TrEMBL record, chains A, C, F:
Primary location class: membrane
Record-given protein name: Oxaloacetate decarboxylase, gamma chain
Cell membrane among keywords: yes
Keyword Membrane on entry: yes
GO cellular component terms attached to this protein's record: plasma membrane
GO biological process, one term: sodium ion export across plasma membrane
Record keywords: Cell membrane, Membrane, Transmembrane, Transmembrane helix
Segments passing through the bilayer: 13-38
Any Pfam family matching the protein: OAD_gamma
Compartments, record wording: Cell membrane
Coiled coil residues, start to end: none
GO terms for MF: sodium ion transmembrane transporter activity
From TrEMBL, chains B, D, E:
Protein name per UniProt: Oxaloacetate decarboxylase, beta subunit
Localisation per UniProt entry: Cell membrane
Signal peptide from the UniProt entry: 1-27
Biological-process GO terms, alphabetical: sodium ion transport
One Pfam family linked to the record: OAD_beta
Any single Gene Ontology cellular-component annotation: plasma membrane
Claim: Cell membrane is one of the keywords in the record: yes
UniProt GO molecular function: lyase activity
């Protein structure tokens, strides 16, 4: 806190910033490079193996498979349903019914009830 | 009947221990000092023999092994607190395998595995984690719906303070007395936590005493209940408890945490964790964490705690006249606590209108040996009137007894640490 | 252990005892106080909200709901059944049938069996 | 609406904190120095009173307790990150129970239970274990099928480096600035890990800031998205992602681990564990271990991490002008990060053919507040075109943002440790 | 066929290691000493480059990374011990990411996360916890019903003692030789535990050797079995095992614990935990604890143990001529152990009446690579007579082999610690 | 490593080897002894108890029960099926369908999905 702006070695700050940001990009660009290459390599491998085994390499084997838009939408919908916050609004529901289940500061017996009773809800 | 046999066996055994050991057990080293065997092989066999348990066994070890086996027997045959007595019993066996020092075997040897696992006991880390799980499995509804029954959980702490005075009278040092007194709280983790802070050398004795008597609650309490209540009192039927809303159940751990810890901050590790666990259970949005806390986490800690507490009863450390005294005080503390709860319930009845009168038997549940003391009350209630179900009413003093003993332990720590 | 009764500072002992026991009571009495008050506060809040929303506050909304005695009894019965010790008496049942399931001191394969086989019992 | 109220309440509260505490909160010790009460009982009561929270409470404690309760309220009422805010909120309560030192209560007192549990935070042990579980629950398919979207996860790290410069400008020491900057990564474990290595005294403030803003992502991001994108851009539909083979999914963690760690070895504890967890998940032969890592293990660590990070906000340590500045920087960092992602997406579009153009809104998901920022994008997408589901596309920048911030944190550690 | 390829690849790789590394791998530091770059940016890039793995990589690192990838490949492709080889393989990768010291990255650097997690290996804490879980998942019925087959588990410990003599002959120091010998026990946790006590610097090599050969049991054992038994012997059918009562199954761990530990107290951490786990499983009243011990607890420990044991193979420490020798000794020990079991079974047959004769192949299961060596026996049995199921008979020597190696390890510790 | 063969105290080595190997045998022989004895003891106990309870001790009560060979075979077969390595061969199956389930580096919400969604196969 006793550092003042004019004391700070700003060139160092900028170096860290620029080098750091660049490296993050480099790392992910390298990953991109590898993963753009991979399907081709794996496919090549597959083709070769199929050839060896005497099977006919179909023309469309090399094409990438895409997930249809409707499937996409259906999934997204299902997910958004799950992701939705479902608030249990306050309701004076009788909750005393499981009063003594599961409790045991020192007693070990009640631990076992969890195994016997059906799971909570 | 079976239960009386059990009690007498326990007491007989304890008496035998004191007689046989005479307060200090000496090692029966059967190994001669010099062996002039010329052959290297005989020498090797001799070296091996010196390290065996057969060569180093003491009568103390054998006594403790019998005690350990007896604990395991009680757990399996009579289902007395099996989740605690099986690990503790096995721990007693492991702690009393005779060994030569220097091989990192014993629980008190630095660098041994048992010693590392014992760290969580010695530093009071395991008990709060147990309380976290307990909080996550406890339903405080009965207590919220009928708060005045909490007083019974407070009254039963007479066991704690009575034992404190008793321990001082029996000549214990004041910190030791404070640690021993918490046996009267009938809460294993609370007793172990307090001992670890006030008198670490007594952890084993205090824990074993506490768990033994808690396992024997169904044997100890009924006669006291019958002695201290009239037939008419035992027949009292109580108003059914009020339903509790979700908001109340969420507010309970928050208010409980702030209120009790502002009064007794030294109880923070215990009560903080208890109410934290309960909040996770009741808030409805962290069920996943509560589930882990009340299953796998508490299981792992129970295994480690039980095993190492058992192993800490290594005969050379455990079989002392102190341990005997602690067992005597423990029995007294359970009796006092039960009586305290019963008596206070009767006093409360003096001030209550007829339709609100409480069945004084539920006072016995204030000792908080949850849920066994509540079950004892239910049992006694049904004996007197087969339609009088007291279990739910007894749960309120029962769980408040847990809070009460933690506050009491906090007070002891405040005054003595 | 070398402390004798006459050396002990008994006034301190009694102070700890009395103050301690009182404080335990105080703590729980405060909790009682709060929790006797709470249903009233929550109810008040509920009434106000209902009023705001234009709904009619029914006469019995303020009454506390009690759990009926029979329900109480039924629950207690169910509980006592669960709480009962159920001892498996010794019976020369053939138990060798799962001899090699689940075992593996060093082998990792068998760990996975637990996921495949139905849970124990 | 409700959400705006929330934001304003948070900001108002923070302002109040700074005004009330005035930068340094002093203990309001109400206890007089000498009490000439003759009676021992009064003395005892006095001793008790001295140790209570009521006697030692400071305005700072009260402020923090309100903050803790507010966190818990947000979690329960609005479901904002409940698994994190409930433990952290309760931790704040526990950390601000007023106490007298010397009883092993406080998280900063050696020998206290909280202090032992805090060890895992202080030494950076918990965050990698959280990452292990995260790896075991994350599906990287979206990223593998469309690798170029990873660039958006890199671009959003502008938040990190922008905050670094900002923190220096606001007068923080360079190591502190490095630790604070990681708030811009929008990853709790990464931020805590970096702080533990660079500026352990700021762990509490940094963690609280990071988690607060992450909880508020659904409030912070939408206006920025709308400000920085045109209606036409928001309507862009993207090609459905390619299906991913099992081999690719197994190779991903292995290649990712080697590549990123060769570039930034200091990120090893975080990225090593993340990819290890993912390998266990995808390899198909260790499902049992992956299941444990993503359920019980991560739950236990989440409980301990949340509770102790919360407790580390003990008012006497936390309520400083530094904390206020960190909160301001945190808000800025989230805005910069979001803008960085959006901007880069727009730049990318300049170089892409029409059928390959990306919807720039998914750039906002690069901040990696998974999965909330992706949900925000999905939400905004549907608002503009109810048939445009962007969730899956947004997951790629979202998870690559996690890798990006870990690499960025590794860079900070390399330069500053 | 596939399996032979695997074996040859392993051996070839190991040979390559020794050739390439020449006993001591030197760092190929590509960084020049002085860089006279005037620009701060270039300096910054240079600093960054100095810390990358690319700049610090050694041929040793690369070799070990290939080994790690190969382990993971074996686990996924051939399902060889995946729960162990995936964590160990990933650990090898993490341990061989090249780094500059001083950033708390390496497993041998104080303060690093890996170093903290390695503590449980170094102090021998993880192996007993693994044994706890193993006890809780093992059914000892086959052994109880046919106790004399236990002798085969004892006989196979020839592998341990033969390796001990061999290690001494190859010039190892006596404590090192003791640690190495336990590879012959074919029990990972036992080998790691013994190494941690006798020769901590060899933990990595010993563990890797033990797990490698255990994974290769289906490749190593069949030729030895065929070599040492006649066709006629391989056709012997055995009497079905007797049924076992619940009481016997409860008494087994108790008697086993007391008996074996009185004979060899130094085996307490291993055998105590093994029998404790088994008691929890069989006693019928602690199923909850046993379930946790054999699932989540053992999973967590397996993850941590595997990862850190793998990481302990940091090239600078691991790639020595010692490691090569240990691998050679390991191969020998598995062969000796198998032969020992087979031979003793043939000797036993000399003293048994016709209807009681045992199929000598089950002697091979005495090495205790459970359950793989038992499966090998079953497989070989079916090859000779498709109706001859030996699996259950082979389980008895198989599990007694575990007890046998733990006793043998205890003896080594008694004599050498 | 600086120890040479002629410096090593070989008599000690052989002592450890012989004593060690013998002790392993002793330990397991003792266990064998106990477990050969046990069924007889338990049986004796059972007979005595049955007598006390006035029940007729059947002649074959003392005989050990054996598991029939066919059962044995069936069990072994079932086990070998379980033990078989079941490799999932590479198959270009669409796996993107659960893209966003379970993920959350810092978000706690998604943790809860595991409780809602059915367990992963
Ligand atoms: Na109590
Ligand atoms: Na990020
Ligand atoms: Na073995």
């Amino acid at each position: 806190m006793i550092h003042f702006l004019d004391v700070v070695n700003w060139s160092r700050i900028w170096v860290i910033t620029i080098v750091g940001y660049s490296v993050v990009f480099t790392a992910l660009v390298l990953l991109i490079f590898v993963f753009r290459l991979m399907p081709k390599l794996l496919n090549l491998h597959l083709k070769r193996r199929l050839k060896k085994e005497g099977k006919i390499v179909e023309a469309d084997a090399g094409e990438e498979q895409y997930i249809a838009g409707e499937v996409n939408a259906a999934i997204a919908l299902a997910l958004s349903l799950y992701f939705n916050e479902m608030h249990d609004e306050e309701s004076n529901i009788i909750t005393i019914k499981r009063v003594e289940r599961r409790y045991s500061p020192w007693s070990s017996k009640i631990y076992n009830l969890n195994n016997i009773l059906p799971p909570r809800r | 009947m079976r239960k009386f046999v059990t009690v007498f066996t326990v007491l007989g055994l304890l008496f035998m221990v004191s007689v046989l050991s005479g307060g200090n057990v000496s090692a029966q080293d059967v190994t001669p000092d010099h062996v002039d065997s010329s052959s290297a092989l005989v020498k090797g066999l001799h070296t091996f023999w010196q390290y065996t348990g057969f060569s180093n066994v003491t009568s103390g070890n054998l006594i403790m092994i019998v005690v350990g086996l007896f604990f395991i027997f009680l757990a399996i045959r009579f289902n007395y607190e099996p989740l605690l007595l099986v690990p503790i019993g096995t721990g007693i066996l492991l702690g009393n395998i005779p060994f030569v020092e220097g091989f990192q075997i014993g629980i008190y040897e630095e660098g041994s595995v048992l010693n590392y696992l014992y760290f969580g006991v010695l530093k009071g880390i395991y008990p709060p984690l147990i309380f976290l799980g307990i909080g996550a499995m406890t339903d405080f509804s009965s207590l919220i719906s009928n708060p005045r029954l909490m007083l019974l959980g407070a009254a039963a702490q007479l066991g704690v303070f009575g034992t404190f005075v008793g321990a001082m009278a029996m000549g214990f040092e004041i910190h030791e007395a404070g640690a021993i007194s918490i046996i009267g709280g009938a809460d294993g983790p609370t007793a172990i936590f307090s001992s670890s802070k006030l008198a670490p050398h007594l952890i084993g004795s205090i824990a074993i005493a506490a768990y033994s008597y808690m396992a024997l609650v169904p044997v100890i309490q009924p006669p006291i209940i019958r002695l201290m209540t009239t037939k008419k009192e035992r027949l009292i039927k109580m108003k059914p408890p009020r339903a509790v809303s979700k908001t109340e159940k969420i507010l309970f751990p928050l208010i409980g945490l702030l209120l009790t810890l502002f009064i007794s901050p030294t109880a923070l590790p215990l009560l903080g964790m208890l109410f934290f666990g309960n909040l996770m259970k009741e808030c409805g949005v962290t069920e996943r964490l509560a589930e882990t806390a009340r299953t796998k986490l508490i299981d792992i800690i129970t295994i480690l705690l039980g095993l190492t507490v058992g192993a800490s009863t290594q005969a050379s450390v455990f079989l002392t006249s102190q341990s005997i005294k602690i067992f005597v005080l423990g029995a007294a503390s359970f009796i006092i606590a039960t009586a305290g709860g019963l008596l206070f319930a009767k006093i409360m009845n003096l001030f209550l209108r007829k339709e609100n009168k409480i069945n004084p038997m539920i006072g016995a549940a204030g000792v908080s040996a949850v849920p066994d003391s509540a079950r004892v009350v239910q049992h006694e209630g049904l004996k007197n009137d087969p339609s009088n179900h007291l279990l739910m009413h007894a749960m309120a003093p029962n769980v408040s007894g847990v809070i009460g003993s933690a506050v009491a332990a906090g007070m002891m720590l405040s005054f003595l640490m």
